[in-house]
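queue> pop job 88
queue> type: inverse folding (structure -> sequence)
queue> payload:
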Protein backbone atom coordinates (compact mmCIF):
# COMPACT_ATOMS: atom_id res chain seq x y z
CA UNK A 1 0.00 0.00 0.00
CA UNK A 2 1.35 3.39 -1.01
CA UNK A 3 0.98 5.83 1.83
CA UNK A 4 2.41 8.53 4.03
CA UNK A 5 1.83 8.24 7.74
CA UNK A 6 2.33 11.17 10.10
CA UNK A 7 2.84 11.08 13.82
CA UNK A 8 3.95 13.34 16.63
CA UNK A 9 1.02 15.69 17.04
CA UNK A 10 -0.57 16.48 20.37
CA UNK A 11 -1.37 19.11 22.94
CA UNK A 12 1.40 21.49 23.94
CA UNK A 13 1.59 24.74 25.89
CA UNK A 14 2.56 28.00 24.19
CA UNK A 15 6.31 28.17 23.83
CA UNK A 16 6.62 24.40 23.71
CA UNK A 17 7.93 22.10 21.01
CA UNK A 18 6.74 19.16 18.95
CA UNK A 19 8.36 17.07 16.28
CA UNK A 20 6.19 15.71 13.51
CA UNK A 21 7.33 12.69 11.53
CA UNK A 22 6.23 11.49 8.12
CA UNK A 23 7.03 7.95 7.03
CA UNK A 24 6.55 6.67 3.49
CA UNK A 25 5.64 3.09 2.77
CA UNK A 26 5.32 1.37 -0.58
CA UNK A 27 7.33 3.98 -2.45
CA UNK A 28 10.68 5.76 -2.31
CA UNK A 29 10.56 9.24 -0.86
CA UNK A 30 13.87 10.20 -2.45
CA UNK A 31 12.22 11.09 -5.75
CA UNK A 32 9.85 13.62 -4.24
CA UNK A 33 9.87 17.02 -2.73
CA UNK A 34 8.27 17.00 0.71
CA UNK A 35 5.84 19.66 1.77
CA UNK A 36 4.18 20.33 5.08
CA UNK A 37 0.75 21.89 5.12
CA UNK A 38 -1.66 22.81 7.87
CA UNK A 39 -5.34 23.51 8.11
CA UNK A 40 -6.78 25.46 11.00
CA UNK A 41 -10.50 25.28 11.87
CA UNK A 42 -12.53 27.29 9.40
CA UNK A 43 -9.52 28.04 7.19
CA UNK A 44 -8.10 26.68 3.98
CA UNK A 45 -5.17 24.32 3.92
CA UNK A 46 -1.92 26.27 3.59
CA UNK A 47 1.59 25.25 2.72
CA UNK A 48 4.16 26.17 5.35
CA UNK A 49 7.41 24.49 4.33
CA UNK A 50 9.00 22.52 1.53
CA UNK A 51 12.24 20.59 1.12
CA UNK A 52 13.80 19.48 -2.15
CA UNK A 53 14.32 15.77 -2.92
CA UNK A 54 17.99 15.92 -2.04
CA UNK A 55 17.37 18.03 1.06
CA UNK A 56 19.69 20.82 -0.04
CA UNK A 57 16.93 23.40 -0.36
CA UNK A 58 14.42 24.32 2.32
CA UNK A 59 11.87 27.10 2.46
CA UNK A 60 9.41 28.38 5.03
CA UNK A 61 6.37 30.59 5.23
CA UNK A 62 6.99 33.79 7.15
CA UNK A 63 4.59 32.62 9.84
CA UNK A 64 6.88 29.73 10.83
CA UNK A 65 10.32 30.91 9.71
CA UNK A 66 12.85 30.75 12.50
CA UNK A 67 10.65 28.47 14.60
CA UNK A 68 10.08 25.40 12.40
CA UNK A 69 12.72 23.22 10.75
CA UNK A 70 11.99 20.77 7.96
CA UNK A 71 14.30 17.83 7.35
CA UNK A 72 14.41 14.47 5.67
CA UNK A 73 16.30 11.21 5.88
CA UNK A 74 16.11 9.52 2.51
CA UNK A 75 17.88 6.42 3.80
CA UNK A 76 15.04 5.92 6.28
CA UNK A 77 12.33 7.10 3.89
CA UNK A 78 11.18 9.70 6.39
CA UNK A 79 10.72 13.44 6.78
CA UNK A 80 10.23 15.58 9.86
CA UNK A 81 9.04 18.97 10.98
CA UNK A 82 10.58 20.28 14.18
CA UNK A 83 8.32 22.94 15.68
CA UNK A 84 9.65 25.21 18.42
CA UNK A 85 8.24 28.25 20.18
CA UNK A 86 4.74 27.14 19.35
CA UNK A 87 1.92 29.67 19.45
CA UNK A 88 -1.84 29.22 19.79
CA UNK A 89 -2.20 30.27 16.16
CA UNK A 90 -0.18 27.20 15.15
CA UNK A 91 -3.13 25.04 16.19
CA UNK A 92 -4.16 23.03 13.13
CA UNK A 93 -4.17 19.64 11.49
CA UNK A 94 -0.75 19.15 9.92
CA UNK A 95 -0.21 17.17 6.73
CA UNK A 96 2.89 16.00 4.94
CA UNK A 97 2.86 15.57 1.18
CA UNK A 98 5.12 13.95 -1.40
CA UNK A 99 5.14 16.24 -4.40
CA UNK A 100 6.86 16.87 -7.69
CA UNK A 101 8.53 20.15 -6.78
CA UNK A 102 8.77 23.04 -4.37
CA UNK A 103 7.89 26.56 -5.37
CA UNK A 104 9.25 28.45 -2.43
CA UNK A 105 7.65 27.02 0.67
CA UNK A 106 4.73 25.41 -1.17
CA UNK A 107 4.92 21.98 -2.77
CA UNK A 108 3.14 21.38 -6.08
CA UNK A 109 1.70 18.44 -7.96
CA UNK A 110 1.16 16.40 -4.83
CA UNK A 111 1.24 12.68 -5.44
CA UNK A 112 0.65 11.45 -1.90
CA UNK A 113 -0.93 12.99 1.19
CA UNK A 114 -0.61 11.89 4.75
CA UNK A 115 -3.72 11.46 6.87
CA UNK A 116 -2.97 14.47 9.06
CA UNK A 117 -2.04 14.88 12.70
CA UNK A 118 -3.63 17.32 15.14
CA UNK A 119 -1.47 19.93 16.84
CA UNK A 120 -3.11 21.97 19.58
CA UNK A 121 -1.27 24.80 21.30
CA UNK A 122 -3.08 25.89 24.43
CA UNK A 123 -2.46 26.63 28.06
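queue> result:
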Amino acid sequence: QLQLVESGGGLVQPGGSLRLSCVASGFTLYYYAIGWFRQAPGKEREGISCISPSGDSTNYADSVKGRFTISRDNAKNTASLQMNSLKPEDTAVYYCAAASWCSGYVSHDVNYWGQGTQVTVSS
